Amino acid sequence: MELTSSSHTSFAAGVALVAYTIGEVMITGFAYAARNWLNLKWLMSLYYAVTIPYLYFIPESPYWLFTRKKYDELEACLRNIAKINRREESEWFPHYTKLIEESRALKTTKTKKKSKKREKVLRFLPRLILCGCIEFVTMLLYTTISYGLAENNGALSPYTNFIIGAGVEGLGYLVAGFAIITILGRKFSLITFALLTAICVLAIPFLTASYPIIATLISQIGKFGVSAAVSVSWLYVPELFPTYMRGLANGIFVFVGSFGSMLAPIVSTAVGEKNERITNYVYSGLTILLVFVITTLPETRHRSFDDDEEVDGVSQTEDDADDKY
């Protein structure tokens, strides 16, 4: 997302997540062809190994280069972006020059910088914890619904369920990409999709035994809701932090979320069908609690990647210049 201007962040995030669903369909095809977990593992490893060299050709983030004062590399990166976007040098270079001059004019001692950075990290600690909670609950619900769809409930084969789920997930990402640029913004889009997921999770155990087809349909709606929530959260959380904190925030975000992904199948297997309703009550309650957590966070629409705390006023110039590339 840092390779795009703030006006295109939502689109870039949406495209990346839709591509993720294509990978899900491919994995389903691999599983159908392999019919053995070991063969599937080798197929996935081979596919992953082929994609690794591509990472070498991905350019560095202009935001990161700017905050690290790597101005020569930043100019080369932006010049390449401008060339790809067919921008004349007169359209962007004066803004870039002004940005660098203002950045160099900010003189602080090394000791003050270190002290100020520590204070900022501590100040963002509560927000880091809240964002970790967002990812934990969303991935818990995402894995729970996906795990349930993957099981054979007699209505459809697990392969069919998974492929349909991938399509529904992609639709969720697309709808989320549209919702966050409307009046709902990031914050209320996330709240809306989280509540939709909670309703579906609460309804599923009441329908599974008697109405498996309807239960599958509700599960797919839940997959749509939680996929959209995941999409919004992956865009929303990075925008809550300045560049120097974004890497740490994303690391904590993904790390805590992985526990939600690991916990979901363990709980589903251990609890069993007898106490499934109680589990869904707890999950729905966690989602409602998550909604209250989200209400304490600020809206980030129209101020993507806000670095005001870091460069004291230069960030607005950066955004203006970035839109020119």
Automatic annotation (TrEMBL):
One of its GO terms (cellular component) is membrane. Gene3D superfamilies: MFS general substrate transporter like domains. Residues 1-301 form the Major facilitator superfamily (MFS) profile domain. Its main location: membrane. One of its GO terms (molecular function) is transmembrane transporter activity. It is found in: Membrane. It is a multi-pass membrane protein. Residues 305-325 are annotated as: Disordered. InterPro entries: MFS_dom, MFS_sugar_transport-like, MFS_trans_sf. Pfam families: Sugar_tr. The chain crosses the membrane at residues 12-34, 46-66, 124-150, 162-181, 188-207, 248-272, 278-297. Residues 306-325 have a biased composition (Acidic residues). Keywords: Membrane, Transmembrane, Transmembrane helix. This is Major facilitator superfamily (MFS) profile domain-containing protein.
